């Protein structure tokens, strides 16, 4: 046995086996890597052609002049901070990034929380999310009509004017004024006053022209000459106009002429109003004896122009108006994501907070919102990336007169590249937009990795 052991020791360790042919490595799904690469190759080619190449070409083109033949250095990038149009676009982009994602996310959070407790919450969510099915082009056309200045066309001004006129009614006779040989004269500020004082028992004619018969109020009645009354001053104010050449008596009430119903008449002595009244449907009015010796004045309120609402697409409001249309589209997107996150919130925590005495506002602020913080971050970051590229809404909604005031970087890129034929500056704007998006994307990727590690 000892000899066998010695013999084995003399032979030394066993020789290693010769390696066989290398085995093909497989991916985690069991697919050979070569096959996986072959399947991914078309997608990689498209990615390179549609993403990598344009980015690289834009980066190189941004350092060349307008013709593309001469190297311009950083001149195109210097224009980003010296060109007035680009500076306005950059300022508007800051406004977009700050307000649009914040408002859309806040509305989405409110809708998601409130609809959780109502029976028709699903139908409401469907209605709110429905604008997401509309393209930016269609939404821009819709809101171009919504923001129309004419209250008869624009919904926004129709509502605004309706609310305004509820508290401050507009005049029905904005263009009325004295005609030829009228007993009235301008009194300043848009008012008219009689040339001579009036006395008790006298009838006064206050004829006006300037309002087309078809624009008179629907309830206007035929004017009636006033009858004198003891101790009072009576009169008629009416539309002194009859259709047809040579028809009608100047400064006299004719059968077909209409009274100015609701016209306000004031009696003025030494600059003070001593009496006032309002004309009846047929234009007649009566003032007490206190008006004796006064001049009759038709105040400017009778002739003020009707309120036509706000200039939503004017220079001062065009950017907030377009942001409003964006929020209308994307609030539903925020609501759906937040509602999905809200469905995963442990109800025990909410009930525990209520048992501890917290009211609904405290539960929302101290429990619901902190638990939804990761979802809210996803929504805000996604919308921030989206608004940095906004183009369609601004291009369509903003009229030519205020498009410079509503300008954003994506629109300025289009204008520089195509309208102004400055491809170098346009490429610099594109690279600048990419640099703005990268930190937001980096933050989002880092947050997602942190969530996965949890």
Textual characterization of the structure:
With 454 residues, the protein is an alpha+beta fold. The chain has two domains: 223 residues, MetI-like fold (Orthogonal Bundle), CATH 1.10.3720; 120 residues, no CATH class. 48% of the residues lie in helices and 9% in strands. The chain is built from 14 helices and eight strands. The chain has a five-stranded antiparallel sheet, with no helix packed on it. The protein has a three-stranded mixed sheet with strand order 3-4-7, with no helix packed on it. A hairpin with a 2-residue loop joins strand 1 and strand 2. The longest helix has 31 residues. It is elongated, with a radius of gyration of 39 Å.
CA-CA gap between termini:
62 Å
Count of discrete structural domains: 2
CATH architecture identity of the largest domain: Orthogonal Bundle
Q: Could you give the order of the helices and strands?
A: HHHHHHHEEEEEEEEHHHHHHH
CATH superfamily of the largest domain: MetI-like
Poorly predicted regions are 1-10
Return Rg in Å. 39 Å
**Count of helix runs:** 14
Q: Kindly state the percentage of residues in helix.
A: 40-55%
pLDDT averaged residue by residue? 86
Q: Give the strand order, joined by hyphens, for the main sheet.
A: 1-2-8-5-6
CATH-defined fold name of the largest domain: MetI-like fold
Q: Any idea of the CATH class of the largest domain?
A: Mainly Alpha
β-strand percent reads 5-15%
The total count of strands amounts to 8
**Which geometry do the CA atoms define?**
elongated
Structural class by helix and strand composition: alpha+beta
Largest sheet: 5 strands, antiparallel
